[in-house]
Please model this.
Amino acid sequence: MGIFDINAVRKDFPILEQEVYGFPLAYLDNAASSQKPIQVIEAMNDYYRQDNANVHRGVHRLSQRATDAYEGARSKVRDFIHAKSDKEIVFVRGATEAINLIAHSFVRPMLNAGDEILISHMEHHANIVPWQMLCDEAGAKLIVIPMTDRGELDLSSFDDLLTSKTKIMAIGEVSNALGTINPVKMMTRKAHEKGIPVLIDGAQAVPHMPADVQDIDCDFYVFSGHKMFAPTGIGVLYGKEALLEEMAPWQGGGDMILSVSFEKTQYNVLPYKFEAGTPNIAGTIGLGAAIDYMKGVGIEALAKYEQDLLVYATNKLTAMDGIRIIGTAENKASVLSFMIDGVHPHDVGTIFDQQGVAIRAGHHCAQPVMQFYGIPATARASFAFYNTMEEVDALVSAIQKVQELFA
Amino acid sequence: MSESNIRDLYQQVIMDHNKKPRNFREMLDANHLAHGNNPLCGDALVVFVKMTGDVIEDLSFQGSGCAISVASASLMTEILKGKTLEEAEEIYQQVHKQMTNEDVDPAILGKLEVLAGVREFPARVKCATLSWHTMHTAMESDHDISVTTE
Model:
């Protein structure tokens, strides 16, 4: 598909063809979780219908097919994020688990009292709490890069925040609450100049734009499948091979060992060292199918289409009275957070829902962002490439409805 | 259908109490007080109670929340002021029954019946009940105490 064809794309997402309370569904909650194309659903179905068996251990035919499909998905992920080697791709439950893994296996052993961990003000709770727990345990400090009113990182004193005590910098590539695209490549370079390792949370980036871990040059990159058209319960930790090699396993069990005796266990090689227990095989296959699907649509093409959607929606909302857009960064992806004057976002969410418009109302697991703006919550519309301009129009009339009701 | 559900939920009385919440103030001489939080949506309120014997002499609240939670808290302060503990408990139980679709006594509920529309929106029931839980907790303790609903 050279040219992006929205009608063809929508046919692949059967869930979108439904009515809610008599209105056509406008699913604008993609930053929370995305829908799955039929190709992903069928790939998982096929696995359960034809190939289901455990991986890496059976001598029989089904196990071989399951292993091939599972490892095939790993290669697809490696290619998708432009990693060097399959060994650098570890399957986990999601971005949250990946961050916790790095916190425990990479940072914890080298974190001492007085050390620092650097994050930003606009992180998702998943990229705050694991570090906070670690800091509490070690007596280390969580340092936060501030943000501006527009919702961009305030990097004016960034150089000073990178210190000899900083043990890791962990930054989201795209803010889930604001849509801000952060300059992670430049930030990674600056951190590396001072020898500081970098983790990039790509959960909100991979569904919307090309990912290239070698270009960013980050040491770790994490994301979840379910936000990029794959099932829940599967995610990826990318780590540079040399670093993963040095790290101790996180969880022990089957599959992560070469040999076990009561005296000593020899751990398996990468990436299996970090994949204890039977993995989410169907989910992994679904993730591989989602990558195939995105490539089929064309990642550059869908990114461009989504930008058009975001610009269209932003212009529409900007032209309305009584609307305040939260997050007006220069570079944004697919998220439109807003407030309607005099109306709490939860009331907005309920009234939208009654018109078939699904959005998120709440703090988006980013309470520090809400505190920054002095608001309890926002209403957030978030787009995927299967959304249409008509759905943006439905969003606009839903806003008008709210304003009418609360006039 | 959805239109009428929405109108039932956001009745005039609710909208009025949301815009102009009654007894929305700090009470410095309160002898019972509790904090209510809904961590999922960030609703947060404080309920202040001044008891004289077993009569609720004064009742007020402060905080932020959606129209449903603010209106429910406002209505609560209006209705319970001057009631005995026993009467307040009975009304509290009736409000609960109304939310869980059980039989209620309209004579006891009075104008709290405007909250009935919330039943059609299960995700919003906790908004309507937060202030009531908080009030109940405040009554049961002499200390400043927190209650959380999800």
In short: Strands of chain B lie at 32-38, 43-52, 55-64, 144-148. The mean pLDDT of chain B is 90.
